[in-house]
Amino acid sequence: MDTPDTSTGFGELGLAPIIAQTVRDLGYETPTAIQSECIPHLLAGRDLLGQAQTGTGKTAAFALPLLSRIDFELQRPQVLVLTPTRELALQVAEAFQGYAKNIKGFNVIPIYGGQAYGLQLSQLRRNPQVIVGTPGRVMDHIRRGTLVLDGIKTLVLDEADEMLNMGFAEDIDWIFDQAPKERQVALFSATMPPAIRRVAQDRLVNPVEVRIASASATVDTIDQHHCIVTRFHKLDVLTRILELEPFDGMLIFVRTKNATTELSDKLKAHGFAAEPLNGDMNQDMRERTVERLKQGQLDILVATDVAARGLDVERISHVVNYDIPTDPSAYVHRIGRTGRAGRAGRAILLVEPRERGLLRAIERTIRRDVPAMDPPSAAALSESRIDRFIAEVRKTMTEQDLDFFYRLLARIGQEQEIEMNDIAAALAFLNQRERPLNVKEDLPRPAAPRREWTERPPRAEGRDEPRRSPRPERDAAAGRDAGAAPRPERSHGRREQGDLVSYRIEVGHQHGATPREIVGAIANEAGLEGRYIGRIDIQEDHSIVDLPKEMSREVVNHLKRVFVRGQALRIAPVASAHRPATGTPSERPPRAASETRRPHRESDHDAKGEPGSRRKPRD
C-alpha cells in the first residue's frame, strides 16, 4: 500500500471546493501517493500514463479531478471510463456517485454485458455526464446510436493491461476512433508491457508518466504465508485452515470456472457457506452473490481472476490462492482484494511441490519472501474442535430450557443402570461423528526439493566410506553406455523393505525408459522425495517399482494416468510372489548388454534438467 503524503491534504490539490468537501466528509484526510501525483496533472488537462497496482487508490486519482472539471449544467456524456470487467465498472461508477453525492444534476451509469438493454437505454436517456463500461457493451450502444461520444472530454482506460489480455485491443482502438480527436486520455495499468506502451504512443499526446510503487509496496501491509502441499491433500489443508483461521470473509482463487463450482460444492459439503463466482454466471446472479457476501449471508467466494476483478468487499479479511497463479502479477492482484484502504489482510498460498519455481517467481516480483507455514496439525484441529464443543455446551446450558432432557437422562440412567458420565460420553460421541473431535491423522509433510539423480543418497548412519567415482553399472543404469552390464535393479532409498510395496508400471526398456525418468515422474506427481522410492527393476515391456506402503489410493489412481516416454504408467500393486528375485548382482543372470544399455539422449530431460516425463495433455 502506498504511504500517504502527509504534507498535502486534498484541499491543497486544486479540487473543486464541493468535491474537496465531500472527500473530507467521507473521512479522507490525506491523499495516497498516486492521488497526489495524478490529481494536479488531470486537473490541468494533461494526458496521463499511470502505473499502479490494485488497492493504491487510483480510482479516486482520476475520479476526483475529472468531477472537478465536469460541467454539471451540460446534460451529455463528458467522461468515458473503460474497464475490463462488469465488477470493476460497477465499482468505479459507485465511486463517482459517492464523490459527487452533494452535486445536483449529476448522473453516472455503468453499462456492461449481461444486463438488460432496456434498463441501460432508459438510463442513457437521462444524459449522464459519466459513462463507465466494458468495451463490448460500449461499442454496442455506439453502433445503435444510443451512446454518442461527441461531447466526451476525457477518456479513461482503467486496468488497461487486463483489457488487452482479455482481447479488447481492437475494441479499444475502435472506441478511440469514435471519440473527438481533442480529448484528454488517462491510461492506468498495473504493468507496462510493450502493448501498453504502443497504445500510449498512438493515443496519448505528450503524456505525464506517473509510476507509483513496486509490486512489493502494495502487499507490504498484507500478512502472507505459503504452505507446501501435494495436490491430493490440498482440500484437507484448506478445510483445516478454514476451521483454524479466524476470518470474516474469504476469497479463494482457482484457475478455471469449473474449479469454482467443484471446490465450492466440496466446501459446502464440509459445512462452509461458500459459493462460486465465475464468468458463466449471469450478471444478476453474480451481483446477488457478492451482495450476500457483503451482508454476511455468505462467508466464502471461490473465484477466478477475471470474475474477481474490481471486487472490493470490506468483509474480505483473507485471500487463499488454492491454485497458484502462473503469472506473478496476478498474485498481486489477487491478494489486493484484502488489506485495502489500510485494512488488515491475510493471504495464504497453497503450493504443490513442483510449483516451487512459481513461488520463487512471485517472491522475485514482490521483492520479499513469502514465509512458509506448516499444514494445520491434527492436534491443533482437535483442540480447536474441542474448544468449540465446550463453548456450545456452555451456551446451550445458559440459553436453553433443558428440564425435559434432565428428566430423560435420569430415566435412562435408572432404567438402563448407566452412569451419567457414560451417557454423556455416548452422546458426545454421537454428536461428533460427522466431524470427530479427536483428529488422529496428521497430513503428510511434502518432501523437500528433490535432489538431482546424480547426487549420492545419504550414507547410512555410522558408515564412513570415502567418496568414489561413479561405477560403470551406475552409469549404465542411468542410461549411459559405460561399456559394462548394468544392475537390473537400483535401490536409492534408506527405507526398510517392509515399508515398501511393489508396483508394476507399464513402461520398460522397449519404450526407452530410464530410472531417472521413472523416479522423476512418480516423485513429481505423487509429491514424494526421490529417496522414498525403492528398487526399480526395468524389464522389456514393464518395470517393477517399490513405493511407500502408506501411499493413498487417490495417489495410486492419479499415477495410473501419468505418462513416461508416451506410455501411461497404469500402475498396479504386484503380489510378493510375482516380485523378481532380489539377490545380489552376482546371483542374478546378467541382462544382455543390448537389452539394457541405452545411449543418453537430450530428449530424456526437459530444458530445466527435470525428468522428461509429462502427463499426457487433456482434451
Automatic annotation (TrEMBL):
GO terms for biological process: cellular response to cold; ribosomal large subunit assembly; RNA catabolic process. Residues 440-497, 574-619 are annotated as: Disordered. It catalyses: ATP + H2O = ADP + phosphate + H(+). The keyword Transport does not apply. Residues 8-36 form the DEAD-box RNA helicase Q domain. It is found in: Cytoplasm. InterPro entries: CsdA_RRM, DbpA/CsdA_RNA-bd_dom, DEAD/DEAH_box_helicase_dom, DEAD/DEAH_RhlB, DEAD_box_RNA_helicases, DeaD_dimer, DEAD_helicase_DeaD, Helicase_ATP-bd. Keywords: ATP-binding, Cytoplasm, Helicase, Hydrolase, Nucleotide-binding, RNA-binding, Stress response. PANTHER family: ATP-DEPENDENT RNA HELICASE DEAD (PTHR47963:SF8), DEAD-BOX ATP-DEPENDENT RNA HELICASE 47, MITOCHONDRIAL (PTHR47963). This is ATP-dependent RNA helicase DeaD. The lineage of its organism: Bacteria, Pseudomonadati, Pseudomonadota, Gammaproteobacteria, Chromatiales.
